[in-house]
Write a structure and sequence with these properties.
The chain is mainly alpha-helical. The protein contains nine helices and two strands; from the N terminus they run H-H-H-H-E-H-H-H-E-H-H.
């Protein structure tokens, strides 16, 4: 039995989307190793890694290689890469607590969502059909809308990283100053901020909804005992 199980495990590890996932990890490692000495290269590698998140999802569906391991690898890579960038931004802008709070919201909301998914016995954390929030259902139910919000969020963080001054300044002041200097940047900031705001709102809804699932699970356990 052991001999028969080993090839199956190896096969899952070598799924095309999972290999893309490993490449994403390597790109992020190189990107953050060079982030202070080569800001433009960092931005390119970081964004490419983010784009590959959509590519590996497409490959998983195209080649029928959807796996729990792949989903977890994706989420862990996303959360860690975003967290690292937010930590850097917290050191470049004031108040840094804003970025650390965004980091805490991002990780806690996704962790709670994953845990509540397992409690409910669902196959995917994106299955929110039973949610009472129309925005929550729209976000996870429409791939294009979710992609827009996610891209907007990451693009905003990359922009903030690229335009950061050597000395700490208010993030609003830096954004306003940079927007006045560049029409292209000013045109980009509005939709990017809109998508970012929606994603943060969804994170709050997600955290509250998932927390409610955990609490209801505890209540049901006590009633049965």
């Amino acid at each position: 039995m052991a001999k028969n199980s080993k090839p199956r495990k190896l096969t899952v590890y070598l799924y095309i989307p999972n290999i893309i996932g490993y490449i994403r990890v390597l790109m992020n490692v190189v990107a953050f190793a060079l982030c202070f000495s080569h800001k433009n290269l960092f931005s390119v590698l970081y964004f490419l890694s983010f784009v590959c998140d959509g590519v590996d999802g497409w490959c998983a569906r195209k080649f029928n290689q959807v796996s729990t391991f792949g989903a977890v690898l994706d989420m862990v890579t996303d959360r860690i890469s975003t967290a690292c960038l937010l930590v850097i931004l917290s050191q470049q802008y004031r108040p840094g607590l804003v970025f650390l709070s965004l980091l805490a919201l991002d990780i806690s909301s996704h962790w709670l969502q994953m845990y509540s998914t397992f409690l409910l016995g669902k196959a995917s954390h994106k299955d929110v059909k039973d949610s009472s929030s129309w925005l929550f259902k729209l976000y996870y139910g429409n791939r294009m809308f979710m992609a827009f919000c996610c891209v907007a969020c990451e693009v905003l963080y990359i922009i903030l990283f690229l335009i950061a001054e050597p000395h700490n300044e208010s993030v609003i002041d830096v954004l306003l100053h940079a927007s006045k200097q560049s029409f292209l940047l000013s045109a980009l900031v509005v939709p990017v901020l809109f998508g970012w705001a929606i994603k943060q709102t969804v994170n709050v809804i997600q955290m509250k909804t998932a927390a409610d699932v955990c609490v209801l699970h505890d209540i049901n356990k006590k009633q049965k005992s």
